[in-house]
């Protein structure tokens, strides 16, 4: 019986050995994770995400979590009878909508994420982009069918003050950031969590940006695979592409995918060595990407780094 149990445990030992070089590589480095979508709404996936983040913290990785809360915002707006509209992948944010966005992201979602992480120990610290002027944002339009389109109080992060984040990371904490931001004239903006995470990754000179989403990655035949024109399970996910290759693909992407891939492009162009889009519906996808040889999802790198 002892021998049988020993043989059964060999696969666990092999997994730990496989993780060893990656543990060595990432210890002391910063990883920024954008958290949202189904990974945030499923209790089982919430628990798995928290375990991943705490594992990384114990492994010596400096983790920053930047979260959205689209489903929660939409649900609250529906309860209030406020219509929801998206243009170019961004929520149209009126002053009335902005009040709900701020309340839900800062008051509900941020507290929930912090609480889930802190069930494992006193690690997570909740912040918003307004705290200590962490984010400064400017109002932005989005492209819809090639035309600049007004989407209301939607902002683009133009400055990040990383001192508060570095202070928390130096103390072994995990900053958890809600994506609302203040403008130079006191306006409050709704900021897309993907692009905010990219700005944080650049400001912190992170080793990686990881965007958790609701698809397996970027498909080689996009947008046909997303539109359902391909047999399920047969579409090929692009495992790696350069920033130049991604920039050429951006005009062909559907609106929901654009902010995620723009975030990866912004991060890599800003000096982050690698940016990843992962399927947040897969439990422990974060650990699978960081600590296994195969990796998952789609990785974006600078041209000179492809194949590394």
What does this structure look like?
The longest helix has 25 residues, at 2-26. This protein has helices spanning 2-26, 38-41, 43-58, 70-80, 95-118, 163-170, 193-203, 243-249, 258-269, 285-291; strands at residues 30-35, 62-67, 86-87, 90-91, 124-128, 135-144, 147-160, 174-178, 180-182, 188-191, 208-213, 240-242, 274-279, 298-301. The strands form 3 sheets. Strands 5-8-2-1-11-13-14-12 form an 8-stranded mixed sheet, sandwiched between helices. It starts with a helix and ends in a 7-residue tail after the last strand. It is of the alpha/beta class and 308 residues long. Residues 225-234 have low confidence and may be disordered. The protein is 41% helix and 25% strand.
List the helices and strands and how they pair.
Elements: H1 2-26, E1 30-35, H2 38-41, H3 43-58, E2 62-67, H4 70-80, E3 86-87, E4 90-91, H5 95-118, E5 124-128, E6 135-144, E7 147-160, H6 163-170, E8 174-178, E9 180-182, E10 188-191, H7 193-203, E11 208-213, E12 240-242, H8 243-249, H9 258-269, E13 274-279, H10 285-291, E14 298-301
Helix pairs in contact: 4-5, 7-9
How do you describe this structure in short?
The protein is an alpha/beta fold and 308 residues long.
Helices and strands, in order, run as HEHHEHEEHEEEHEEEHEEHHEHE
Structural class: alpha/beta
Distance between the termini: 44 Å
Helix content: 40-55%
What Rg, in angstroms, do the CA atoms define? 19 Å
Number of strand elements: 14
Low-confidence stretches: 225-234
As laid out across the biggest beta sheet, the strand order is 5-8-2-1-11-13-14-12
């Amino acid at each position: 019986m002892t021998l049988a149990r020993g043989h059964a445990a060999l696969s666990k030992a092999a997994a730990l050995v496989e993780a060893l070089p990656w543990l060595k590589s990432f210890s002391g480095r910063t990883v920024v994770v954008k958290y949202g979508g189904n990974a945030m709404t499923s209790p089982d996936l919430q628990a798995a995400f928290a375990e991943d983040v705490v594992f990384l913290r114990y492994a010596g990785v400096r983790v920053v979590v930047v979260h959205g809360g689209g489903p929660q915002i939409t649900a609250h707006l529906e309860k209030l009878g406020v219509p929801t509209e998206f243009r170019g992948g961004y929520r149209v944010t009126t002053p009335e909508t902005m009040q709900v966005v701020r309340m839900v992201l800062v008051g509900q979602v941020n507290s929930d994420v912090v609480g889930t992480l802190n069930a494992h120990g006193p690690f997570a610290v909740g912040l918003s982009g307004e705290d200590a002027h962490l984010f400064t944002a400017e109002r932005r339009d989005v492209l819809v069918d090639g035309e600049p389109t007004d989407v209301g109080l939607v902002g683009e992060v133009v400055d990040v003050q990383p001192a508060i984040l570095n202070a928390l990371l130096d103390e072994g904490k995990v900053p958890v950031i809600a994506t609302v931001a203040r403008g130079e004239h006191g306006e409050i903006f709704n900021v897309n969590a993907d692009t905010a995470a990219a700005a944080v990754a650049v400001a912190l000179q992170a080793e990686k940006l990881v965007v958790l989403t609701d698809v397996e990655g970027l498909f080689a035949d996009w947008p046909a695979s997303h539109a359902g024109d391909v047999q399920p399970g047969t579409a090929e996910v692009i495992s790696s592409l350069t920033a130049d290759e991604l920039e050429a693909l951006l005009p062909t992407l559907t609106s929901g995918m654009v902010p995620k891939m723009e975030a990866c492009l912004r991060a890599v162009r800003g000096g982050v060595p690698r940016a990843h889009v992962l399927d947040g519906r897969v439990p422990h996808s974060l650990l699978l990407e960081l600590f296994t040889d195969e990796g998952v999802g789609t990785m974006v790198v600078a041209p000179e780094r492809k194949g590394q």
